[in-house]
Amino acid sequence: MLLEVKDLTVKYDQIAALKGISLQVEEGKLTTLLGSNGAGKSTLLKTVSGALKPAAGEILYMGSNIAKLTSHDIVKKGIVQCPEGRKVFPRQTVYENLKMGAFVRKDREIGEDIEKYYQQFPILKERRNQKAGLLSGGEQQMLAICRALMSRPKLLMLDEPSMGLAPIVVQEVFKMIRAIKESGTTILLIEQNAKQALKVADFGYIMEVGYITIGDDAKALLKSETVQKAYLGGA
Amino acid sequence: MKKLVQAKTKLLLLGVFLVVILLLPFVVPNTYALKVLNNVMLYSVIALSVNLILGFCGLLDFGRSAFVGIGTYFFAIVMTRFQIPWIVAFLAAGLFTALAGWVIGAFLQRTSFDYLTLITIGVVEIVRLFLVNCTDVTNGAMGITGVPSPQLFGFVLKSHFQFYYFALALLVLCYGMISRITKSYKGRALMAIRDDEIAAAYSAINLPGYKAMCFGVASFFTGIGGAAMVSYTRYASPYNFTIDEGLILCQMAILGGLGSLPGSILGAAILVIVPELSRTAYEYRLLIMGIMMVVLMLFCPNGLLGRSGLKDILVRFIRNLGVKVREKRKV
Amino acid sequence: MLFQVFINALSVGSVYALIAMGYNLVYGILGQLNFAHGDVYAVGCFVTYSMFVSGMNPIFAMICGILAGVIVNLCVERFAYRPLRKKGANRIAPTISAVGIAYIMRNVVQLVWGPQTFAFNLEVFGGGSLHFGNLYVGTLQIWILTIAVAVMLVITLVLKETKWGQAIVGISQSIPTAALMGINVNRVIAMVYGMGAALGVVGGILFCSYYGFIYMGIGFAYGTMKAWMATIWGGIGSLKGAIIGAMCLGICETFAGAYLSTAYKDVIVWVIFLVFIMIRPRGLFPAQIAEKV
Amino acid sequence: MAELLRIEHLCMNFSGLKALDDISLTVHDDEIFGIIGPNGAGKTTLFNNITGFNQPTSGRMFLEGEDMTGKNTTAFCLKGIARTFQNIRVFGQMSVLENVLVGMHKNMQANLFEIILKTPRQKKEERKAREEAMEMLHFLGIADAADEMAGSLPYGTQRKVEIARALVSRPKLLLLDEPTAGMNPQETDDLMHLIAQIRKRGPAVTVIEHNIKFMLTLCDRIAVLNFGKLLALDVPEKVAVNPEVVAAYIGEEEE
Amino acid sequence: GNTKTDGTADSSSTAGTDNSSQTPDAKDTDAGTGEAIRFAVCGPMTGDSAEQGLLQMNGCQMAVDEINAAGGVNGRQLDMVCYDDQASPNQAVIVAEKIAADPTIEFVISHINSGCTIAAQDVYIDAGLTVLAPVNTLDELSGYGWENFMRICLSDGASAKMLVDAMMEMGAQKPAVFYANTANDLSACNIISDYLGEKYGIADVIKETFNPETDRDYSSQVEKFRAAGVDCIILCCEYTPAALLMTQCHEKDYRPQTGGLACNNPEIISLGGEDVEGLLTVTGFDCTNPDEKIQEFIGKYRELYNTDPNDCSSRGYDTIYCVADAYKNGAAKENLAEWMLEKTDYQGVTCDIRFDGNCDNQAAITYILQIQSGAFTLLEQ
Ligand SMILES: Nc1ncnc2c1ncn2[C@@H]1O[C@H](COP(=O)(O)OP(=O)(O)OP(=O)(O)O)[C@@H](O)[C@H]1O
Ligand SMILES: Nc1ncnc2c1ncn2[C@@H]1O[C@H](COP(=O)(O)OP(=O)(O)OP(=O)(O)O)[C@@H](O)[C@H]1O
Ligand SMILES: [Mg+2]
Ligand SMILES: [Mg+2]
């Protein structure tokens, strides 16, 4: 197990958003996390990446507890999050944003990586000298995904990466996710587009207001009736 | 039924509180303590006006002391030079200050938070230097002596004791007015501006108009507070309206909790009373004040009665003792 | 007279410039109205003064002063600002704790050094003035201006070119997001405060050397306030702006005093400032707005 | 069916970038009008222009026949346009109910003196506003959250708060910018019904979305933008099979 | 009694921020009979003008300690309480109320800033407290007709005229005034320019001011003086701006004769160095007087506070002795003001005190000192 969350409880002020959650992310596999609005998915990611501190429970990464580490130490360990709501650096250009993504890297291939993502999302190349804050919503989303990838993480956590993207780009993103997975990176994916997500995923978890209700093989989930009803749009 | 009981206890508490407040002057040890109490109430009025600007409209105004000065001097000049009833001059001082505030507020429309903050300090300097230099009008650095005490319905409220009830009535009135404004749609418009100007503009809120109005209304109360204060000390001096004073007024609102009206009164009380306690320990006065401010901010970053302030700390404490406290939020 | 007044104006401006840069650095990056800036550097200057008076080599004395300022600011950051940041406090809270720190520092200075004015002459900058006919230019002013411009260039370069500079720029936009990039936020912010204090102390020492005195009030009225004005004038977050803003401030003050009225000098300066802000609401070198609906 | 909004030859440049390029279209007062297009096509920019947030470089706009070119946001709002934002903009430190009440701002009449004196008229107005706001919250199914601080709610709820805020101002035209972003299919379905209901309540709706299925079911007409240009404007069935649109936007339908 | 004096002497801080008589046990350990005579010292003790307040306090403190060590007044110890008015009139009123509410306080050493003094007077009058002002020089104070208020110093007007005479005698052709924009200094400036007009027929005296809180650069003033050909500048301001102005004049090779109203602080010499050479200052305390008593006082003061006394401290010192003298001869809290106005005829170490029926000290003498080769020297009249 690359990542193992045990009985995690997280509170905002006094109110628990996660109420004792356990889940596992296997190395080299893609795990997806589904759930309705406010279930606590983003809260979980924020806790793993160190932005929130758990009230109880453990987060084991490669066997050691990272619950108490600071965000930057966690990033250095290879866990990177692409946050919900894009969160690009608005006053820096697209190019500078990408370079920021590679902050923890020390190698010299940064330029090549940037070029690679430019190929994948040509609009970013076109806008490379524009301030990121002035990009359209979708452009920002693409930038956020690429920026997360720039650090070459071991565990990539994506929070609704397809949000606000045109269908054609969504397909591109999923293709990319698949390629990343195939290159050996472990992925924890939060998606509202449950069907697509389960298709690329190996495992899936379903969350409901602070609890995990189902955890199963992705294929099984895709077929499960309850899941179909609640998360795959009824019909 | 439960609601009724609750309402009853609330009423009872309010009644007890009222009696205590009304009888307070009879139990304080001396006139000095009374003076301090009166000052707390006068400063509360001003702190409330700061809260209106900062807590509700989100504009950091360090320049309230300038408006206190405008109110004070308008009142002092009018009262010492012309024969007009006290109450007329008093209200006129408020209105004149409101006008000044409105003009300045309207003038500062285009500036953003930080710029406005500095400019308000500039206003303090401009007003202070005007008061010092413009000797013909303001009697310059000498100040104006012999400002009359409040005269209401033929009574002259000269003693501290009498003034206590005047200040109390004034505070209650101002509190009521400000609270009504903040609870109305105009108050909500101010809060909307504070939270998100763009979304506010999309709700048909006229940003410049509201900001100017906020400055104007708040300045009315500031001016009234200033006039009441000079009616109390009976001497107007330009050296009362400094940047430091402006900072203190802001701190009252902030320490108490932005957006919380009782907070402003608490803040005023703290910042008037704590320096009194350290009056003879003057060597450490600033140290005491400084440490107090830092510590209070660390414990309640949103002010004592603000979000996650004293109340929440108390609730948490009680809960830790094992008592069940109703959670406000439904999950 | 006109030309001499102009030179005087530039001299005053250059004195404000250095102090303003330290202020602007912290202000631009962390958005904090740092009321403690002046009082923290006052401590540094007083340490320098004490060291020098007790017979230390002036250069070492200065280094001690700078170190003292940096250490004080780091402690302040650690114990007064960082906890607030961790609690996710609003922008106002650190402003108030900064005022608290300013009070504390002022009190400490008064307790340790007393309220009177001391002569301050480190004897390193070489006093005196050059004169060209009827014109007088102080040598120290030339020093000060050179140092200010050099410091500005170095810092600009650091911010632009180094990784740490990029980290600082990132933090100035969003602290949580910067942390997600693997930036050690606390360390970088501490660094910024340290740098701000160092610049402040250097500026303060030059200020004191220029006027030849030191007393406990140099922090607020001459430090925080002037630095703040210069910063706003030049544009928040722009170092170049800090220098040019300081110059504008110097020019306005000196010319208003020389040609209009010394009594109303400050009023005039403030009014000019107000009008300027009306015309350019974001200062001379405004930070670019990068927000979109 | 009457013309509500008419845009003529609208252009918008951002320092060299043509975000909108000669757009002309008309929105009727009884339709749900959809706008789709690749990222960066200029959809949000179009919204910004027809609400007076950005001033177009050239072109004209008419609302119910009145020329609105050059007017500011507040003027548009008073004329009956309300919108939601792609990047959510709720008043974070205010409760949900207060957020919605702010939306009613333009319908409130009381002046300062009435407020201070709490005249019966003002009291009645305030009570009515609260009732209406609560009713709106019920309608959107977020009445439970009425007293919560809007800023700490999940994205989906915040979106609904925005919609409620926009709706209570009784607009003639409601602009929704990606309302389903961050919602799961179930919630998206709910929202779809909601929008249909909203439409029945009065305002015309113009909606930007990337969820094709959603758009095809919901909209009466769809405009397709691409690189700032109007690529197509037609009923959904035709747009969906327009080869240009498929190539630029929808992509190969999988499965 | 108060035995912490030694501690003060040890402290290296100069204008001593310690205040020893605040020890709460002062009363209990009282050696003498009867209660202590408690009195209040007011003034700014923090903030920008703290220096004067603390200097006045130091002088009082020294006298109190000496008197107590010698057995007190009629066996009663002196007990001094200090109040900080932060140089703010509003605060001064609160201070006054606090003092008035304390029945054990018998008299008050006045606030220093005139705004504070005026603001607080009402309260003191109502409370029947006597106010003694060691350093309130503002002329206008004489005109208020207060019966409980007496000052030990000369008013600005009187000393300013002396200074003007001295400077004109030295051959000034075109005098100018440089004043801080405060009540005291503005008032003095007006007196000087009127006097120059009346006595010397100089009508258009150049007057330049500065804002003491925020100005340290006087280059525009210097430029104006120089351009107008001013050869004599009368300084109505504290010693720091005075020294700075002279330095800034000399930087521009401009060397007018200067004289100041409040420049007798020894710090000015270390501050201004060579630049303040030749500066005249008018003072009520002639530190150059070889008189044994005066030199002894200077020596003791220096030992305590590590610096030379000036007007503020010496006047504070003598004021306390003068009141002690009144108490010794039968005055009490109730009739102190009356008694002193009528009967005080006290020869102090640094000045004599005898009141003129109003609030002014008739016997105050003023000297003119000049800084010569780094030291104050008495200018022969
Ligand atoms: N800053 C905050 N303060 C208080 N409560 C919060 C905060 N952020 C989130 N919450 C609460 O925590 C719960 C979980 O929120 P979270 O954002 O993790 O949900 P989510 O599953 O990611 O939802 P979404 O699909 O909308 O992104 C929600 O009830 C939300 O109201
Ligand atoms: N203020 C601005 N300054 C400069 N360029 C801008 C500005 N606003 C938008 N742009 C650019 O204009 C283009 C259109 O942006 P817009 O936000 O309208 O796209 P959109 O169609 O809404 O895309 P999305 O579906 O991704 O939200 C984008 O490429 C964007 O980078
Ligand atoms: Mg989420
Ligand atoms: Mg968009």
Write the layout of secondary structure elements.
The complex is a heteropentamer of chains A (235), B (331), C (293), D (255) and E (381).
Chain B: H1 2-27, H2 31-56, H3 64-81, H4 86-107, H5 113-133, H6 135-138, E1 144-145, E2 151-152, E3 155-156, H7 160-183, H8 185-195, H9 197-201, H10 207-233, E4 235-236, H11 243-256, H12 261-277, H13 285-299, H14 310-320
Antiparallel strand pairs in B: 1-4, 2-3
Helix pairs in contact in B: 2-7, 2-10, 2-11, 2-12, 3-4, 3-5, 3-10, 4-10, 7-8, 8-10, 11-12
Chain C: H1 2-30, H2 37-53, H3 58-86, H4 92-113, E1 118-119, E2 129-132, E3 135-138, H5 139-161, H6 163-173, H7 175-180, H8 185-211, E4 213-214, H9 219-234, H10 239-260, H11 265-279
Antiparallel strand pairs in C: 1-4, 2-3
Chain D: E1 3-14, E2 17-28, E3 32-36, H1 43-49, E4 58-63, E5 66-67, H2 73-79, E6 81-83, H3 96-103, H4 112-117, H5 120-140, H6 155-168, E7 173-177, H7 185-201, E8 204-208, H8 212-218, E9 221-226, E10 229-234, H9 236-241, H10 243-250
Parallel strand pairs in D: 3-8, 3-9, 6-7, 7-8
Antiparallel strand pairs in D: 1-2, 1-4, 4-5, 9-10
The complex binds adenosine-5'-triphosphate (ATP) (2 copies) and magnesium ion (2 copies).
Protein name (chain B): Branched-chain amino acid ABC transporter permease
Pfam family, one (chain B): BPD_transp_2
Keywords (chain B): Cell membrane, Membrane, Transmembrane, Transmembrane helix
Verbal overview:
The complex is a heteropentamer of chains A (235), B (331), C (293), D (255) and E (381). Chain B has a two-stranded antiparallel sheet. Chain B has a two-stranded antiparallel sheet with strand order 2-3. Chain B has 14 helices and 4 strands. By secondary structure, chain B is mainly α. Chain C is 74% helix and 4% strand. Chain C contains 11 helices and 4 strands; from the N terminus they run ααααβββααααβααα. Chain C has helices spanning 2-30, 37-53, 58-86, 92-113, 139-161, 163-173, 175-180, 185-211, 219-234, 239-260, 265-279, and strands at residues 118-119, 129-132, 135-138, 213-214. In chain C, α1 packs antiparallel against α8 (185-211). Chain C is globular. Chain E is built from 12 helices and 14 strands. A 7-stranded mixed β-sheet of chain E has the order 7-6-8-9-10-13-14, with helices on both faces. In chain E, strands 2-1-3-4-5 form a 5-stranded parallel β-sheet, sandwiched between helices. In chain E, strands 11-12 form a two-stranded antiparallel ribbon. In chain E, α2 runs parallel beside α11 (311-328), α3 (89-100) runs parallel beside α4 and α5 (156-169) packs across α6 (183-200). The chains are: A alpha/beta (235), B mainly alpha (331), C mainly alpha (293), D alpha/beta (255), E alpha/beta (381). Chains in contact: A-B, A-C, A-D, B-C, B-D, B-E, C-D, C-E. At the A-C interface, α2 and α3 of A face α6 and α7 of C. One adenosine-5'-triphosphate sits between chains D (14, 17, 19, 37, 39-45, 86) and A (127, 130, 134-139, 164). One magnesium ion binds at residues 43-44, 86 of chain D.
